Amino acid sequence: MLKTIDVSRAFPIQGEEDFYALKKVNVHIEKSRLTVLVGKSGSGKTTLMNILGALDPPTEGKVLFEGQDIAQLPETERCRLRRKKVGYVFQSVALIPLMTALENVAFALRLAGEKRGLEDRALECLRLVGLEKRAGHLPQELSGGEQQRVAIARAMAHRPSILFADEPTAELDSGTALQVAHIFRDLTDKEGITVVMTTHDRELATIGDKIYALEDGEIIAGN
């Protein structure tokens, strides 16, 4: 579904040689599987995820999404791809505080261009993450784990081809983090959703079907 071919990402440093956050990285993301990118802070996993998710272009290499090299697309096409086919869950949930959980998810559907059945689809997504009974609550009335689950429901509401989650459990306690991680596992197993998740927690990474370990911008292990 998605793969990189010798992808590198360089950042210029004034008066010095470019810093390479990624160095000829090759990964293969399989459809309807949970892939985990694991590594310490600064290992390059978020940089790689941003490239896989069409948020940033690589300096070198190819990124093939359903056979198309998205690295060569103009920004307008990349934006359309992100809006229609990609879902994102970030470390910071960034829910709209004056909207209920249901309204937050429905609003994401409006942004994706959906016009009908917004509340029904939003409620369905909240049900998938176990929060249908909390649909009418504002973000500040939800726990950290519940807020992250709303963010997951929001990210999948427009039925993306692939869902990216960047350190979605980093701000949660270990027990809640495990619960959230298992939601991604269930979305893959029961709904067939393709998920790519980053984490610094090697134990948490074991929930993945495929695991890539990164260090200093390189893949050091992959199953």
Describe it.
With 223 residues, this protein is an alpha/beta fold. It has a single domain (32-46, 74-222), classed as Rossmann fold (3-Layer(aba) Sandwich). It has seven helices and eleven strands. It has helices at residues 45-52, 75-85, 101-111, 118-128, 144-156, 174-191, 202-205; strands spanning 2-11, 19-25, 28-29, 34-38, 60-65, 68-69, 86-89, 162-166, 194-199, 210-215, 218-222. The strands form two sheets. It has a six-stranded mixed sheet with strand order 7-8-9-4-10-11, with helices on both faces. Strands 1, 2, 3, 5 and 6 form a five-stranded antiparallel sheet that branches. A hairpin with a 7-residue loop joins strand 1 (2-11) and strand 2.
Summary, kept brief:
This protein has helices spanning 45-52, 75-85, 101-111, 118-128, 144-156, 174-191, 202-205; strands spanning 2-11, 19-25, 28-29, 34-38, 60-65, 68-69, 86-89, 162-166, 194-199, 210-215, 218-222. With 223 residues, the chain is α/β, with parallel strands linked by helices. The relative contact order is 0.21.
Radius of gyration from the CA trace? 17 Å
Coarse morphology: globular
* Distinct helical segment count: 7
The CATH architecture name reads: 3-Layer(aba) Sandwich
Gap between N and C termini, in Å?
17 Å
Question: What is the CATH homology-level superfamily?
Answer: P-loop containing nucleotide triphosphate hydrolases
Residues in helices, as a percent range: 25-40%
